[in-house]
Amino acid sequence: MDKILSLSEGGDGPGELQQYLSSLSNDQLIKVLTNAALKGKNIGATIKGIFKGSPHNDPKGSGRRLLLYQHFIPLCESGDLQSEVAADIIGLLMLEAPNLSGACLAEVASHFVEAIKSGKMASGKSLELFPSVLTALAACESLSFGKGNYWYSPLSSALARDVPLSPEELQFLLEKVLRMFGKLELQEVPPLIYQLLLLSAKGCKKQVLDGIIGYFNEQDLQQKDEQDMELEVQAIPKDQLRHVEGTAILHIVFAIRLDHDLGREFLKSLKTHHSDNLCPFGVALLLSVARIQRYEDQVRGGLHPPPPDIHITQLSKCSTVISFYFHIFLIHSGCLCVQYRSGASPLIIPPLCPISVFGWDHVTQGLVQLGFFLMDTFGPKPGPFGKPAESGPSGAARTPNQQACLLGRQVLLEGFKMHEPIRGEILEQVLNRLVTKTASPVHHYIDLFSDIVVSAPMILLESASKVTETFDNLSYLPLATVQGLLKAVQPLLKVSMSLKDSLILVLRKAMFSSQLDGRKSAVTGFLLLLKNFKVLGSLASSQASQGISSSQIQVDVHSRYNSAANEAFCLEILSGLRRCLGQQADVRLMLYEGFYDVLRRNSQLASSIMQTLLSQLRRYYEPEQDLMPPVKLEPCITAQGDQVFLQEPLGHLLSCTVHSLLWLQSQRPLARPNDSDDEEAEDDEEGGYKSELMAILDSVTRRLVKSELEDFELDKSAEFSTASSVGVKNSIYAVLVMGVYEVLLEYNFIKANYSKSGLEELLELFQRYQKLAEILKEKSGKGRTSAKPPRSLLSMGFVSKLLTTLFRDSTLSREEGLSVLRSSPDFLRYALAVALQKIQQLEDSGHTDGPDGHAPDKAFGFLCDLTGVLMWRYTNIPGAVEAGGKKEKRCSLSQMCLEGLLRIFTTCTQRYPDRTAQLLSTMTTEPNADDITEISFFYIRQFQRSLFNQLSGLEEEFNSKEAQLLISILSVLSRQLEPSSQQFVSMITWTVKICKETSFEDIAFTKGLLSLLFGLHALYKSPVSLMLELCQDIHSQMGDIDQVRCVLSLPIKRFHHKPFILLILAQADKVLDEVDWLIAKKKADRPSEGPLTAPPQDPVEKAMTVQLGTLLTALNELVQTALLPGGGTDTLLRALSRTYTTLTTLVKYSPSLVQWVSHRVNVSLLQVRLSGSHLTPQCYSFITFVQAKLLRETKAIPNLIFSIEQYEKFLITLSKKSKVNLMQYMKLSTSRDFRINAATLEAALQEQDATQQV
To answer: What are the residue boundaries of the FANCI solenoid 1 cap domain, all occurrences included (predicted)?
Structure first.
């Protein structure tokens, strides 16, 4: 070392130093340097001397320089050197790095890379040298290294930005970096992502984004697996991972703001590979990008569903949610569901809400926008003519739109509970939609608001001012919105005095609103308050008339209840509601319908409510016992000029009074066994109005039995025309009297307690009702096809009890009395008709009139009771043994029972889809009653036996209507079977057997049977094979278009084929829907870039090919069939046009795959052959046949010709791209939508010949 120092400091020049260094071997030089470095003495001078004696243009000198770098890099990493010594060494090496040759720089860089890959960079002290090496390497104009011009990819992307890279080198570098993600510490990932995003400016943007998203997706899956295994210690803490993901999202969004090409590549990648990128991290990134104004519309365009008029093949543009739609679509497509089991899960967004609390503030706003976007876009739409549609079924969401709307609701609810900054915005937007969307259904927003109130009431009270502002608009909102909003806000009113006082003030103002809906809203609000503020104390009824302002009521929210305050509050409301008894009939009707529920919830208000009803009833009761009729009808109507309106719904008033009285009577014996003095006084008061009411009801019943219709001026001579005021008045009177009759029927049945005399009086009352009903039906039905009967006032609970008693009660003590009613077929028919009406009302609106009609659980209980009695009646008393059965035009009791069962099953599947097994289990004691497949098949077998008995008899005894009802019931119950179960296979086998063996020529029944068969095939496998068989049968029976004799010989039989042809073509549309959906799905999934490798054979495409090929064969049979004009000809032409459109779409989709992999053509040669050599020529022959038969213009023909020509056009294009001659099966036709008139042509030719001869 001393020799090197002396020669370096001497003035003789570097020649002698070079000579000395050349005399040393590499081992000797390394030994000298190692000793100097370990001692820390003069190491810097020694290194400088070696550099001085090693010129870079000399091969030996260049080798010694490289030796210094190769030796000192691992020595500094070893930790044997002092920190100051190592720093001096690295500093000197950095200064000399620009003087290294290109080959030496490449060697040093390779040495660094290998050391890093092998994990030898323990301390990282030498890494400070790496950037200088790379910088010097980038400055080299050319580099000869190894076998040719080559540069080894560096690891540090931060420095590689300044290094010129070819696309292949850049891709290689990025692959290396992305593979290192899993080996880095989690905290080191965000800086590396930042550098990668900067490096993406050179290219490979998609690779960078996909790699980052894929890495975090793998981490999320690993977290989920560890959570499923319930590991106590996780490899990566969840909160740490979420924070890192949030930082990465910030880096990516910032880069996209600066680099628009990166943003476009992200959206493009999302559309083409949405199933891979729709992970929690990918969706969070999408929501963050959506906040950038430049990309907001593009992101929403990817989420937005197709407009109604868009063609199905354009659905690929909506690629972000197409997997969601496709997932739901497969549920309803049995044949494709078997073939397709993959796809992105639609339930990836709700987990973002809890994840986003880890500092993802930039994501939460996007979640809010997404939630409202889903609810606005996929929520229920207005009904026809701009009227708000009724609320949907209360069951689970089934359709894609319903599930997407539910998804948005879940996102907003979770966001409200977890993110304080966005609570105000969510609540404000929800309430704004309730106020502004008056022409659209808003029940989904009401459900969201109700969920918020239930899950976070105290949090919501912080924004109580927004709710108060909404109260000011109550009188202007639709009644359904007011009812839902006030019902949802009830829990808040019990804990917030200010909110309750604000609502009361608004309702008081609305009570005197000039708008009828405003007053109805006020009644709704007050009734809800009465039902929810329960009174547990007692208060004399004399105080009910005292005016108590809401400011005087103080409710202690910390105590369990404040009885006196609640009672005073409720009595004040009742005092205000009494004023409604002088308003329009609609307001009074709401009051009467609500009093019964209030009474049941607040029994301490019974005295005040019953006194109010009694006072109102006295106005229309005739106290003179000798006068007929016993009720005054004149005060029940009002006239404005020539128009007559209902003023008092007398039947509903009487119904409310009767039901309230009956409920009080049923509760009083159980109320208080030990009466005190105060309670005895209250009982005396109760006994006063009870006895008076019972006397009134008995008097009205007795006198109505004796009254004739002439007493009401409603006999057969009365006018019921709606064109005159007298006719309108008589119609109103008739409906009022019928309502009174029905209420008294229910009251007297309960009062009679099965006594013979009481039920005889009830039957006489019914006969009066029936006579009036027949007159009203006869008079009002003139000039119209059908007269809809007025809605019955019997409660659904009473109807259920009545039918059970009439059909199944075998108690000996009741036999004599019940025989009176059972001997009247008209009464039995009436009871069944009312039951059908109630069930239909429940199916349509979700509730029924009368007590407990708005309670879903009780309504379901009534359905269960009715199901049991109707099933028993139908299975135990066949319709053939009923008196009159076949001779009467009206349907039998058994048929009415069957219709009731059909309506019950339909209602249950729509309104209570999760309780169908419970409904069916009420009728059996089968051990597997909880298994929906087992219990459904148990009843299916019973109905199958009934249908088989129908078909086993003579054709003259065949009851077509009953058979159609049985088919409909089988269709509903078969949907409850699991398609993969043995019971479902048995159902299909039985249906096919019935179809083959049935010989009755009943069009409606046969059509229903085929519809059932198609429905079963659609759930189990494709119906195209069945369609082909039917088309072949129709073709063989109707004959070919060239066989004129056959066409003319079977006119009647051929005419009956029209409904079946329409049914087949409807199924063809469904098959084409499936094919179009699959094409859209495959278009969305196709790769936009990547290696040109052949994909494996897709079973989905194979299923699509088979379906389409069979459909083409079936249509080929139909186009050769001699159809009569009007026998589905136009529908067939439209189906053919759509089929060619679908083929065109498939052909247009194939070129994109041909570009992807040149040797694969995605259109089946079988389809081309079937469409070209078989179907297309027959289509032109069929067009000629139709033109000859119809002799009129139809738009379907030119549309079909255009579709065929478009298909041939794109098929030629595909042939050129795929280099496969697909046109060998096609014969281009010259047919157009015109015909050559042979006579005119002949005349023109003769005229031309004559001219030439002259």
So the answer is: 1-53
